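Hi L.,

You mentioned the student needs an example of a multi-chain input paired with its predicted structure. This one should do, with 903 residues in total across all chains.
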Amino acid sequence: MKLIAGAALLCAALIAAPASALDKPAGEPVLTVTGAVSQTNDGGNAVFDMSMLEALPGRSAKMETPWTTGAAEFSGPFLREVLKAAGARGAHLKVKALNDYAADVPAEDAELDTILATKLDGKPMSVRDKGPLMLVYPFDQDKGLYNEKYFGRSVWQIKEIEVLP
Amino acid sequence: MTMGFSPDGSFLRDAGKKTVILQGFAVVLTCILVLLFTDLARRYRLLEDGIRENALWSVFQLDREARTLSFQLKDIVRDVEPGPKKIKDLSLRYDILYSRINMLKDSRFDETFEHDPAVREALLEVRDKIIGYASLFDRIQSGYKPTDADLLGLNDQVETLVRDTGDFLISANNHFSTARADNRDMIIRLEGTTALFLSLLLASVVFLVVNLRRQLKVVREAGRNFELMAEELSDAYKAADAGNRAKSQFMATMSHEIRTPLNAILGTAELLELSDLPADAASLVRTIHSSGEALLEIINEILDYSKIENGKLELELRSVNLKALSKSTLEIVRGRAEEHGNRIVLDVPEELMVPYVRTDPTRLRQVLLNLLSNAVKFTRNGTVTLRLREFVRDDVLIVRFEVQDTGIGIDEAGIAKLFQPFTQVDASISRKYGGTGLGLTICKQIIDKLEGELGVRSELGAGSTFWLEIPTKIAEVISDQPPAARSPNELANLPSGHVLLVEDNAVNQQVATRFLERLGQKITIANNGVEAVEIARRERFDIILMDMQMPEMDGIQATRRIRAEVPDVAPIIAMTANASDDDRRRCIEAGMVGFESKPITLKRLRHVLETHLKPGDLPAAVEEIAAATPAPVEEADGFSEARRNELIEALGEDVFNELVETFFEDAGQIMESLQHALGGEDAILIDRLLHTLKGAAINVGLNDVADLAHSMRDSKPTIAGVEILNDRINAHRRLLVA
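Structure written out for the whole complex:
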């Protein structure tokens, strides 16, 4: 139910968005959104470089995670904004990491203030430091998220998001 | 019956103790169980610890990334000329591996290994090795092209790393497996303990329930026993009460029985006094008379007491002039006081705050009279003072009377016994002074009923002061005036007046007429209520004597009419064979000022006239007349010789015989009507006929007929009952009219 509502909202947002094509990334590509996307700039995919991502609306928040010592500040664009920019349209997301780790994330999770963190404590994240991108749930906003279910979905070293129907 | 309470009681106490212990036990067990469950829950959480699972996962990932790096490195080493893409990928792999070690180093996963030194050591070794490659890869990332020697050296190192990470993975897994197994064992142990405690708790609860059930059973039994006991007590109380009532009834009956001949003695003596007797004989008669009166007083006291004990004391609150009441009461004892050489003092304030109060004057006077009589009785050549004071306490008007004497006084022990029934201060008192010892008990009861207090202050040889305080209310109507003090022995000076006699029965008419004539009164007769109203409207009377039950219109109704229609009406006095308190109240309510029980005696009639006839036509006072209601006179053959003598004395033998004849004629008619009425079941008519018969019979002294008629009024008369009545009348007729 929640899932469908989330998907519907997402769809509505996408339909309302202007159908302008995504610019080609100027810098090194860091994220590829594949699958059901309409705003493409590389064949059938939407490719983002770091500056494109950082231009999108997002948030910066201090929170505790199982992967950091003490509270750490994560900042980056909202997942929903990234998907919107890519013209994504689907109910499931398959978030893939550099090491081929992948997690299924329901599209409704994008409705939360989930971000694709580009910076940790104000510094860009290197691959050695879970970079370049990490899916960070708003653990600071909702304590209910602080469990294995969301830890598993918190993929780091993200390189690709596949949008599935 | 003996009740098994003591074993029940001890069982209940034991059971109560057991219950408390079991409850305590249950509470302790519950606490322990709660602790155990908390621990168990915590251990389950630990067993399911996601972080630890994740930690193991991370170690596995570390191993996997190390192997991937090793694989890629081998691929590059095998290549003669590796391309820059392969070198870049290798560099990325290293970064990923590095991120893994960082993950284990920085994050909270680290904590999980803290307690196992072997795991921790393996981790540190692996970490050091991985960080050791950093300088080479940093250079590669900044553009350095690694030489074959670099790569081969790295390959060797990575191979050992892979071995190490494999070992690390195994030892971490062992660590977690052991921990998990330990935890599971602990949980199983805890579960065992919990089960044990749970069964203990269950057992104690079962015990508790069993114990409570037993207790409940015993309580129920005890309740039943209590009920039984209460029933028995109630029965015993009833029996005791019945006994007491029987005693009172006996006293009342005895007093009646004694009063009957006594009345005859008194009547005869009175008549004797009226006749011309030689001086010595007159003195003897006076002695008979005064002794008889003393005896009557005692009997009246006993009657009063039994009445009070039966709870039949009724108060009649009226507007009372206390000053007048004090004066008149004192006057009554004046004669006796003077006989003892006592001086009498009335100490009443000039002006009372509240001259008229609401109280029961008859009862109050009775109490004062008793106290004054005592004072006079126990004082020789001294002073008896009646003091009246009034004050307000807690917004209530209190009237205080004191009767002070300078007599023999009472010691403390005597005072303690004073208000108990049938007790006098000591036995010698009754020998010397007489009396029943009931007087003060009656006084106390009356004052209690008036919600007041009665007390005494006394010293042996220095006199006594009896005091009483009663709360009263201010009376709204000022209608009570003191009766003029009169000596009951005073025969002369009776003013002559015009009397309206309202009476339907011929016999009663004749008796009353003769008596009144003898007392020098002018008489007009009205045969019923209607006539009475008519005559009263036409003529002026000084006094109206009113029969209660009459055909056409009864006395109550006639009184109301007369009082409503005739201005400045004469005092109306009821004359009736009914003498209950209820009748009395009804008469007073209707506006009558006095109440006389039948048979009317010469003395009572004279007293009525004395009280209500005043020279100079003063308005008559409200006065309780029937202080001592003469009981229906009875004798063995049901005929009152005293009454006969009284009548013959007043009316003459011829008139008496005429009277008797008239009665039997009347009675014949009444019986006929009665038999008739019995057929028609006219209850009101039957009652009236019986009442008339009773009144007439009592007047000629046929007391048994009167009683029989009266008793038949209480229950529905039967034909058999009427027969018996008829037989009785005929028996008298044979005897008297022969």
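You could point out the following to them. The CA atoms of residues 729 and 735 of chain B lie 10 Å apart. The interface with chain A takes residues 50-51, 53-54, 61, 64-65, 68, 92, 95-96, 98-99, 102-103, 106-109 of chain B (CB under 8 Å).

Best wishes,
N.
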